[in-house]
Amino acid sequence: MDQTVTKAPTVQIRVDHDSAVRLAAAAARVVAVGCGLPGALPDHAAVLASELAGNLDKHAEDGTVYLQPLPLGGGMEILAVDRGPGMAEPERCLADGFTTTGTLGAGLGAVKRMATEFVLRSSVPGGTLACARLAPPGAPGAARQSVGSVCLPVEGEDRCGDACAVVETETGTGAVVRTAVIIDGLGHGDAAAEAAQAALRCFHAGPDRPLPDLFAAMNRALRRTRGAAVGVLRLTAGGRAEHCAVGNTRTVVLDHVDIRHKLAAQPGVVGWNMPVPQVEVLSLPPGATAVLHTDGIDHRWDRTGDPFLLRLPPPLLAAALAHGHRRVRDDATALTLRAPAAYRAPAAPRVPGRRRATDQGISDRGMSDREVPGQAAPGTPYAPYSPDGAYGRPGRSTARPGCE
Q: What is the rounded CA–CA span in Å between residue 176 and residue 72?
C-alpha cells in the first residue's frame, strides 16, 4: 500500500484579473507533473485550466479555479466555480462555435474533448461549476471515481491544519471497502498542520483497521501534538456505513431529494482527552452522497435544502461547499463520496471510435439520471448537464491520500 502523504493543500487561484488565467495554466502544469501524468498531459492540463479560467474572467463573478491530484490517485482535476449568471443552455455552450463575446467559441468544446472526464452543472441565476479530470490513456477509470475534496488553509497562510484522505481496500472475498477520514488540527498554522499530518500518517498505516482501533492508534500518535478533531466514515457497496467522530467535524448523508442523516461527533480531542470511540452503523439510500467537513465550512449549508446543491455529483459538491460556505478565517475542508462498486472489474480495452455507457453521461446517482440537456428536471430551478461521464466507476486500486 502506498503510504506517501502529500502535504500541499488544494491549489486555489482566484480569477479576478487577466493575469490569473496564465497563473492557472502554469499551476496546472506543475500539479500535473507532480501527479506523474506522462507525455503531453501536463500541457493538456495547462490548456484546460486556461480555458476554464478564461471563461471565468470573461463571464463570471467571484470565480475560482481549484487544482489538485484526484482523491484516489491516478490523475488530477481542475475545478472551476463562480457566482455568475449561469448557463441556461449548457449543451449549446459546449458546442464549437457558440459564443456570447465574439470569440471563436471553441473553449468549452475543447475542454470537453481534451479532458478524460468532464462534468458541468449550472444554476440560473447562481453560477456554474465545472470539473475537468485528466488520467493516463491506459487508466481512464481513475477519472471516474465518485469522490471529491477541497482542502484550503486559512486566508493568507500556506500550511493547512486540515487534512483528508480516502482509501479503497478489499475484503477477503474481493469486495471493495471505501474508508474516508477528515482531520482538523486544533487552531491553524504550523502546529495544527503537524497534528493533522501525524493523524494522516497513522490513518494510512492501517486504514482497514476497526474504527475503535484506528482512533486508539491516532490518539497515541497525537500525544505530542496539540491534538485534532477526527471523523471517519467507512462505506461498503451494499450501502452499509460505519461512522465514528471525535471533536468538531460534521458528517451529513444526502440524496437528490433531501438531507437523510446528520451524524453526531463525540466531544473531545484526539491526542488529548479522547473518549471511548463509539461507532454508529447505518444504511445509506441508493445513490446517496456522504459529506464530511471541518468547521471551516459553515454548518448551516445543510439547512437550506437547495435542490441544486443536493443533486451535485461528489466532485462538484465539494467545490460548491468550499466556494460558497467557507469561513476564510479558518482552515476549511470538504470531502464527498459515494459507496464503491461491489467488486473491481478489470478495465475493458478502449475501442477507438466507440464510447462506453458511462461516457454517455450516466451518473452513479442511481444510473438513471440522464436529464434532457439544457432543461431542468421537474421541481428544480437549474439546468443539469453532465457531459461525457459522471463518476460512475471506482478509481484505481492503489490506496493514496486524497488531500491534506
A: 13
